[in-house]
Design brief:
Blueprint lengths: L1 H11 L7 H10 L6 H11 L4 H13 L23 H24 L8
Helix pairs in contact: 1-2
Length: 118
Amino acid sequence: MRYVAAYLLATLGGNKNPSASDIKDILSSVGIDVDSECLDVVIKELSGKNINEVIAQGKTKLASVPTGGAVVAGAGSAGSAAPAPGGDKEEKVEEKKEEKKEEEDEESDDDMGFGLFD
């Protein structure tokens, strides 16, 4: 990514077709070591292309990439599942276990010898 960024900086500075030495100069000015293989790939792929067209093509490709964030269905939706039989008993047992753990955690906090605002 740093090679692409340096290439873009060079084109932004007015150099329509930056060379490998131009990119090396930009990267070395901020203390970044240059990997010649990676630099050669970037130069090969971007050489002779209009950078604005490359960016425009990239934007159209990114528009089709899913970014996550699934939609959460509401509790009253038609797709919600019915509770399993005997589910209330299981929930009560789990709640009791959680309450017991919370009580144990609170007691262990008291043994530390200091409070948040002491």
